[in-house]
Amino acid sequence: MQQTVVEHIDRIAEDVVALTLRAAAGELAPWDPGAHIDLSLPNWLTRQYSLCGDPADRNAYRVAVRYDPLSRGGSEYVHRFLRPGRALGVSLPRNHFPLVPAPRYLFLAGGIGITPLLPMLRAVAAAGLPATLLYVGPSMDRMPFAGELRRSHGDRVHLVETKRQGRPDLGALAATLEADALVYCCGPASMLAAAEAAFPAGRLHTERFQPAARTFGPDTAFEAVCARSGDTVAVPADESLLDALAHAGHPLPSGCREGVCGSCEVAVLDGAPEHRDDIGAPEGRMYACVSRALSPRLVLDL
Amino acid sequence: MTHAPTRPRRVSPKEVLARLGQPEPMIRAKVKDRIDGYFRHFIAHSPFLMMATADAAGRADCSPRGDYPGFVKVLDEHTLALPDRPGNKIADSFRNLAENDGVGLCFLVPGVREVLRVNGSGYVTDEPDVLVRMRTEAKQPELAIVVEVAEAYFHCGRALIRSRLWDPASQALAEGMPSLGEIAAAQFGVDVDPGLLEQVLEDGYRKLY
Questions:
Q1: Is residue B5 predicted with pLDDT exceeding 70?
Q2: What domains appear along chain A, each with residue ranges and CATH number?
Q3: How many contacts, defined by CB atoms under 8 Å, are there between A and B?
Q4: Looking at the keywords, is S-adenosyl-L-methionine present (chain A) (predicted)?
């Protein structure tokens, strides 16, 4: 956990504020475009936000937070109650959405999904590589950074206001995509689904900020063997692996508890995990908050 | 109801009023008919409240509710929503609300001496847009209590000052209490090792949602 102080809270769109979080002491941990942090809010909630500032600035992080009318208390707290000067704990940056080297890029942003793509576009432009950003939102006043993007990146940036123009045709865009381009998409579920339908899976990188609506088989009980201690932990059907491990004295870090943030990642040495996360667990890893087991036993590196 | 000869003397309401006098006009003015920005701020920082309800005959009940700060949602300046988390399933409050919709709430914020009091009427809802705002640990309550606010005000801090409720040294009072297992074994009248019973009860506390 790193300690920061809220330096600025700036309204950058109708329902979006940007927070500048200054290091309380020394420098903050480095990060690459696509990374996010967990913010530990004063109301005990932990929320994940993509870093959208300058990776070269080691003294401050910048995140943008959209107000959700169905807020459970995270965005509502940031918008209504957080004040400059407040101390906030932030996690080390994690990156499930890294920029893979490619000769050219297409970035697709929906609303607040612009945040991880902003430093990506800056990095790609600074490297002199060709890139296009298609940024979709209801209207300009609800699209954070739109003006700044147009000023800095000119006609590389295409802004689409759905209220006036409707949704863009991603299929048509895919048809004209250069063969060596990679596509990065962050936005609401509807946009991710449209992108997944339009672009080949191998060239599309996505990040979602809410778990996808999916159904799984019934939860069943299994055993987790902690290889280092030799402890066997029974995971009942009505308990998560994360909770069962914590109760047995093997707590893992945790954040969102719904398979999007990745803080509870654990290495699997044997057995078949049933991945239920939205991150896409790397080979040999799983996220204990939501994922369960297909085999009766999992052996974990714990 | 018959009174034992030793029962403390009953003072009539008229006499009480005569002794205490009328409330100051300023005290009456602090009672608002809605949730203003300051009340909203308080509710957003409150992890705990006591809720009073009564049945049709006026028999009263008071129960605690607690969760992360802001667990009570302000739907608008006249309406609050309280999640129903897994508890003892006795559901006295639900039964009472069905008969008598009167609700009294006392919100506490750790470290703050004043108490927010909200009175109004309540009913049970399963509105998805309300419940989704109460999802925590990937679990959503099945029901919530909607409170339509009639009055709201800050209650002065004397009770909490006198009780030293937020003074960390007050926690030493817990050392004077018998263990949970000891109490439960005696009150349930079961012949079980209190240590074992305590373990069972503690295990039950692991599952909060």
A1: no
A2: 2-90 (2.40.30.10), 104-207 (3.40.50.80), 222-300 (3.10.20.30)
A3: 45
A4: no
3 state SS for chain A: CEEEEEEEEEEEECCEEEEEEEECCCCCCCCCCCCEEEEECCCCCEEEEECCCCCCCCCEEEEEEECCCCCCCHHHHHHHCCCCCCEEEECCCECCCCCCCCCEEEEEEEHHHHHHHHHHHHHHHHCCCCEEEEEEECCHHHCCCHHHHHHHHHHHEEEEEHHHHCCCCHHHHHHCCCCCEEEEEECCHHHHHHHHHHCCHHHEEEECCCCCCCCCCCCCCEEEEECCCCCEEEECCCCCHHHHHHHCCCCCCCCCCCCCCCCCEEEEEECCEECCCCCCCCCCEEECCCCEECCCEEEECC
Kindly list the domain boundaries of chain B, sorted by start residue: 22-162, 178-206
- Confidence category of residue A259, pLDDT binned at 50, 70, 90: confident
Task: Check whether B120 has a pLDDT greater than 80.
Answer: yes
- Report the residue from B40, B41, B133 with minimal CB separation from A72: B133
Closest residue, chain A, to B41 (C-alpha): A81
ipTM rounded to 2 decimals: 0.85
B47-65 tens-digit pLDDT = 999 999 999 999 999 999 9
Q: What is the pTM of this model?
A: 0.86
Distance from CA of B189 to the nearest CA of A (A): 29
Q: What residue in A sits closest to B47 (Cα-Cα)?
A: A43
